[in-house]
Specification:
Layout (H helix, E strand, L loop, with lengths): L5 E6 L13 H7 L2 H7 L4 E6 L18 H21 L1 E6 L5 H14 L4 E6 L20 H5 L21 E6 L4 H7 L5 E4 H7 L1 H14 L3 E7 L21 H14 L2 E7 L10 H13 L28
Parallel strand pairs: 1-2, 1-3, 3-8, 4-5, 4-7, 5-6, 7-8
């Protein structure tokens, strides 16, 4: 990865999440110093700014619960184009934005991999599988459909862009899953997707589970995309997300995954999604996500400086400079 620049792509999409705030995610990642950390690791960093959605089309669906269908499709078209283009030029890092952005990032990257004659794999770090179709979603929030769409499930035709290269379900590994709707559970049972829920992680640890998947990617000479949702993490360490699910990955479990991914040399792109700064605590979640991205890109445990947590006016942005 060191030979290619890291390309930061802001995706301020919030229409898929069902609540406001994710559109501030790209700015929060930038403010938390992602570009600075990557440069410290020796990377050239290009910030391409934010994606702008494609023109809206009038779209109607029989499922009356669906929200913002036309907007989500417009975002998907634009993100897929950006992913396809930038993946030839460097290592794209998509700064979300809700997880509906992966409908575009994954499909654009899959198209590039297919044209290069390479197997394309996805590591999905999330508490949810996001495996609903337009017919099965009951919430109507379309951040719950990107993996179903990217793997070619039926029901997206005529609405979402036609897939150039559907993602093979057997090339997907999901880790951290702990919130699955009945319709998703039934559909997942018929696929070849590898799913390691939190019980599997509790019983086995993350290392052997991830190692088995990485060996499969390496054997296929594959290209690996990582999609990291804030709610993969336990809300005790990452509160800045609108879909908190207790019992998520710990600080060290998450960092170990990132360190193993870097050691593998297989990762070619990254999603950072579902950060809602409006729900965060003074940037705590944004800083942790930047920390994890830095680990994926090569920062080691021994590189981490000891930090002081003394409560001083200089460190507290809310402290008054001249209190009365």
């Amino acid at each position: 990865m060191m030979q290619k620049p890291c390309i930061l792509i802001g995706v301020p999409v919030q229409e898929g999440a069902g609540r406001l705030g994710c559109d501030m995610g790209p700015s929060a990642f930038r403010t938390a110093g992602l570009a600075t950390e990557l440069r410290r690791l020796g990377y050239t960093v290009e910030d391409r700014g934010n994606v702008v959605p494609a023109p809206l089309r009038e779209l109607r669906h029989a499922n009356a619960s669906i929200k913002a269908l036309a907007e989500t499709v417009a975002w998907t078209e634009a993100i897929a184009d950006a992913a396809y283009t930038t993946s030839r030029e460097g290592v794209p890092i998509f700064l979300g934005g809700d997880h509906s952005l992966s409908a575009g990032s994954i499909t654009g990257l899959a198209r590039r991999a297919a044209e290069e004659g390479r197997e394309f794999f996805v590591l999905w770090l999330d508490s949810h599988p996001d495996f609903h179709t337009l017919e099965t979603t009951t919430s109507g929030n379309l951040h719950g459909v990107p993996m179903a769409y990217a793997t070619g499930r039926q029901g997206f035709e005529g609405y979402f862009p036609k897939l150039h290269a559907p993602l093979k379900p057997e090339n997907v590994c999901m880790m951290g899953i702990r919130s699955v709707d009945p319709a998703e559970r039934a559909a997942l049972a018929t696929t070849g997707i590898t799913i390691h829920d939190m019980r599997a992680i509790d019983e086995n640890g993350v290392a052997p589970l991830l190692d088995a998947f990485l060996k499969r990617v390496a054997m296929a000479d594959g290209i690996l995309h990582v999609s990291l949702d804030v709610d993969f993490l336990d809300p005790g360490i990452a509160p800045g997300v609108g879909t908190t699910v207790p019992g998520g990955a710990t600080f060290r479990e998450a960092h170990l995954i990132m360190e193993m991914l870097h050691d593998s040399g297989l990762v070619r792109s990254l999603d950072l999604v579902e950060l809602n700064p409006f729900l965060d605590e003074r940037g705590r979640t944004a800083l942790l996500m930047v920390d994890l991205a830095s680990s994926l890109m090569g920062r080691r445990v021994l590189d981490r400086p000891t930090q002081s947590y003394r409560h001083t006016p200089q460190m507290n942005p809310y402290a008054q400079a001249n209190p009365s």
